[in-house]
Amino acid sequence: MSKHVLILGAGLVSQPIIDYLFKNTDFNLTVADIIEENAAKAIDNHPRGKSAALDVNNADLLGQLVAKSDLVVSLLPYTLHGIVAKHCLQADKHMVNASYVSEEMKSFDAEAREKNLLFLCEIGLDPGIDHMSAMQIIHSVQKRGGKIDEFVSVCGGLPAPEANTNPFGYKFSWSPKGVLLAGNNPAQYIDGGALKKISAQDLFHSTTPMKIDGQDFEAYPNRDSTTYEEIYELDGINLLMRGTLRYAGWHKLILALKALNLLTETAVPAGRKSYAEILADISGLDVSHLRSEVALKLKVSEDDETVNALEWLGLFDKTSIEFPATNAIDLLAEVMNEKMAYAEGERDMVALQHRFKATFSDHKEEITSTLFDYGIPNGNSSMARTVSLPLAIAVKLILDGKINLTGVQIPVDPIIYEPVLSELKTLGIEFSEEIVKS
To answer: What is residue 329's predicted lDDT score, i.e. its pLDDT?
Structure first.
């Protein structure tokens, strides 16, 4: 009898997993979303598909949908995975998602093992493809008798080079608030074998220029990299950093937005005013000489590219419009969402690179592993493909009985990463590797 998969959420990354499972399995799919129309559109009248309207807080309906399935895919915000996991435990169903393992998810591990269930998390892009491709190289080095001395891994979702058409070098296919909030996070990593802490204030003073395949990027540390010493079996490593990748120059613009108090929750009261007046109020500047005062505050010239970028964003616009009550970061997110969206037919790009240094008994190796993946014009974005295809492949493997793990897991075991990476290659998501020996 055909297996049944419940997919919760029909948002921006859901289409590739639905298409893959219809094409490559005989599974029946139910796609549930708070707006049923989104789920129905994603299924597109497929004979093995059903759509459902679901508010995840409706415990009765969620319970019924989970009970009828063999496995549940949660594409919901990570804060809701716990609700879904409880229903899966109650109904003895496997679960997969692409989010970091929260403390709440960890707490379900023992019961999931007892019930012989697999709750596979972090099986998207970052986290996900990054884990799997890194572990494949780490295990290969260890099998060959080597020791990893340094490991730097960076990943970014960016406009493809030909779509990189604005002064920020960035475009959003969904709300930018999360990207902006990341500018307020501290970070820590291992450098020189010791813990290095970076405050939120210093995060964008700690960017590293990187050239990848001739393109200029920069990377900054991503939250807490130190936990990966244990996860990736890298005891005693000298340098270990996971970072976020952006086109060169991003840090200057984020530092400018921070300096102007635009990444705060400073209240913006309702009323009729201009963006220039709002910026002046938030930053404590004189609106009549706004451009020169902004330049002075940022310690740059008035024709500096940073000031020009703020002007391009519309922050110096003196046209009065009616604003609802909001706050600085929400307003900025709204402005960016409008000005920095992808135009029709433009491609996004995922860039991911691992850099290893390893020591063997008779030589050293520098290993570079690089992934560039591009969206399909007027089709699925690269972000959607790279987040949801690993999930899709994992669903197939689990329901075909190919992954015999239980409990709360992430994809660092070869039983998961070997077949997933192998299948991703057939879908055009493939790393190029370079090894320099000395």
So the answer is: 93
Q: Greater confidence, 181 or 430?
A: 430
In this structure, the dihedral spanned by the alpha carbons of residues 29, 34, 38 and 39, taken in order and rounded to 10 degrees, is: 10
Residue 41 clears pLDDT 80, i.e. is over it = yes
pLDDT at 174 over 80: no
Count of Cβ atoms closer than 10 Å to residue 363 Cβ: 10
Q: Which of 33-37, 177-181, 210-214 has the lowest mean pLDDT?
A: 177-181
User: Does pTM top 0.85 for this prediction?
Assistant: yes
Examine the pLDDT at 132 and tell me if it is beyond 90.
yes
Which residues, other chains included, contact 377 with Cβ-Cβ below 8 Å and sequence gap of 6+? 345, 346, 347
Q: Which of 70, 126, 130, 348 is catalytic?
A: 126
According to the model, what pLDDT value does residue 259 have? 93
Answer for the pair 75, 8: CB distance below 8 angstroms, yes or no.
yes
Exposure b/e, 82-92, CB count within 10 A at least 16 = b:
ebbbbbbbebe
Contacts of residue 105, defined as CB under 8 A and 6 or more positions apart, other chains included, come to 81, 82, 85, 119, 121, 408
Q: Is the dihedral of CA 265, 266, 270, 273 positive or negative?
A: negative
Q: Report d(CA 171, CA 35) in Å as an integer.
A: 26
Transcribe 39-99 into DSSP letters.
HHHHHTT-TTEEEEE--TT-HHHHHHHHHT-SEEEE-S-GGGHHHHHHHHHHHT-EEEESS
Percent above pLDDT 90 for the chain? 92
pLDDT score, position 379:
92
Structural domains of the chain, with CATH: 4-127+383-428 (3.40.50.720), 161-346 (3.30.360)
At 191, the amino acid letter reads D
pLDDT at 196: 95
Q: Give the DSSP per-residue string, 357-419.
A: EEE-SS-EEEEEEEEEEEPPTTS--HHHHHHHHHHHHHHHHHHTT-----EEE-S-SHHHHHH
Burial of residue 384 (CB within 10 Å: 0-12, 13-18, 19+) is: buried
Q: What is the pLDDT of residue 120?
A: 97
pLDDT at 396 over 90: yes
The reply to whether 109 belongs to the active site is: no
Tokens representing 305 are: 């590219």
Phi and psi based region of residue 127 (left: phi greater than 0; alpha: psi -120 to 50; beta: remaining): beta
* Burial class of residue 428, CB neighbours in 10 A (0-12, 13-18, 19+): exposed
For residue 252, what are its two tokens?
Answer: 């200057």
Instruction: Please identify which residue in the block is written with the tokens 């690269």.
Output: 382
Question: Which helix H or strand E contains 156, and what residues bound it?
Answer: strand 147-159
